[in-house]
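Hi support team,

I'm opening this ticket because the web form for multi-chain structure prediction keeps timing out on my end. I have pasted the exact lines I submitted so you can reproduce it. The total is 698 residues across two entries, so I didn't expect it to be a heavy job. Is there a limit I'm missing, or should I split the entries? Thanks in advance, R.K.
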Amino acid sequence: MTPRHRTSASVAALPGRSALLHGFRTSGPVLALLALTIGFALADARFASLANLRIILDSAAVPLVLAIGMSFVIRQGSLDLSVEGLMAACSIVCALALANDRTTFDLGWVALPVAAGFGAVFGLVNGIIVTRLRVPSFMATLGLGSLCQGLAMLLSGDQPPLIRDAQLRQWALGQTSGFPNLALVALACLAAGFFVERFTRFGRYSYVVGSDESVARASGLDVDLCKVTVFAFAGLMTGLAAAMESSRLGVGHVEIGAGQMLAAITAVVIGGTSLSGGSGSVLGSAVGVLALTVVANGLVFVGATPYLQKAIEGTIVLVVAVVAGWHVRDRLRVVK
Amino acid sequence: MMRDVDVLGPLALGLALAVALAGTALPGRAAALCEKSQIRLVNSMREIAQPYHVNLNKGGRLFARWAGLEDRYVLQLNQGDSDKQIVLMRSILATDPRCTIFNVEPNADVVVKPMVDTANQTGAWIVTHWAHGPGHRPFDGNDQWIAHVAVDSKAVGVAVSEQLVAAMGGKGGIVVLHGRLDTDPAQKRFAGLKAVLAKHPEVTLLAEQPANWDRRVAFPIMQAWLAKHGDRIRGVWAANDDMALGALEALRAAGLAGRVPIVGVDGIPEAIATIARGEMTATVSSDAFYQGSIGLAMGTCVLTGQVPAPQTWERQKRDYYLRVIVITKDNAARYAKEPVVDDYASEWRCDNLWSRATGPAF
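Hello R.K., no limit was hit. The queue was backed up. Here is the completed structure from your submission:
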């Protein structure tokens, strides 16, 4: 029996509960999130009001869904840069499938899984290009993302479709027992993602593929199938995120994904997932997403001067990244 | 010998051309600089996702179709990248520069000078909109810079802010959504608001944030403000309609749609419909269809010789303010319909190109 080394991959292989505790005990991301929340609450007490916490959850919903998909991709050592373009395409598809001012479709809530499925199909294409055509993931996904962006512009045409489904809009903007509905959807995705990564074979294989792909292949794992599935899953999450954002805003928007890709990757990295793959958890990514959302919301709350807002936001993100990664900075052998 | 042939040929051709052109030039008109079928119409703008730009493009296309040049119409999108806007211009001018007309919505004010310089160097023609950098004017020897159609953004800001203050009853707190703060429209519209606020001390500015002209960015900002200020917010001022509509959705989520006055700028169809419904108070339109087409119309008139060369025009025809329209519930119905060629054809005629000029912009 090989001795147990405390690498991230073997941490993931520990029995469920102690792995969780281990993560939180040494968790820089959670400390960073707490520090940010307390800091902003001290600056303005209304920041910590129930109403605002609800808004933070609501704002975090779409980035969280994206980060869940991105977690799986980064954990296996790949990158998915098609997020912005794919979100654009799925947003238009969702808007056209709902009651809108351009087409006669009226699929109601079915439009959301339709858009998600559309995303999954393109995610599948990503996976096939990476595994069969052997194109590095950042190039393949970047190319596909541009393709999807173009597709979105074509479908959007001269007039971005306006969503007229009042019931769905009300649901997307509304709450259930105090929780924003979109946040509930994101939490459901989080639970599903956590279940898959912790309790399914596919989840564990995905860690191994990211840790050391050649070992995975030598062990007889179907690495290609694993990779394609992960990309398809990321595409599914992207499509769902686009549908959620479109329902909230009431429009199919070609620029709906602007800035979301880097935000998702940042959240995943802040949450403890190494860019070189093999470690991390969707829970960590959720903490990362919350941290970024708290920063954005908090800066609006304290009224940071518009001219410096971007600079301040960037500085805070850097500090959070350093704090979040502080406990593993020595053991971090590869920093990309 | 080879060398003699090389010189004689072009020289003979040049002389013949000069004689031909001299023959066609009539007193009071300029010579046609290009064959109509050679004219290329280029609309250069930021993107096509915002309704304002959709209408800029529509206006350009409407004109191109009316002029019989629809297949010579090119759309250039720079996606918010100033360098790209210049590079796109230069790359298309690799062929046929002298018969190409650019109608430009500058991504940022600083982009205008390099584009005008490119036009001067290549012989292409350019009409710019909105604002350009200081100390730089069409009539200062920039012969290819046909005209600059300026919008008095401060006056626009004043007009729309007065509507907001009136709808608020002259008192209360407002929140402000800026556009990209490195552009003249964003800065000047806000200057207009400040001028109006100075005259109404009972209206206070509670908070301000830039939202990048984008409803997606405006939405969470408005949400955070609602959590922070609650019902102290009596009015929302947005530098453009798209951000105003994003703020409206945040208000809708809080059950306040239609209960808080909102103003924007641009006059996009969605905003006009929203004003008609009573969920927005006012917007100001520079008429994107007109802006997207008038530069092309001017250029076509110059190239076909129907107007003399721009360097002979009086100054106020080359740098002037465009008439804007304030749209409120009272007149929303008139502006809500889809534009047709007949609405604009009379203003594209070469003897009526300045029908919407309100005065010199210098």
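A quick check on our side: The domain at 154-285 of chain B is CATH 3.40.50.2300 (Rossmann fold). Let us know if the file doesn't open in your viewer.
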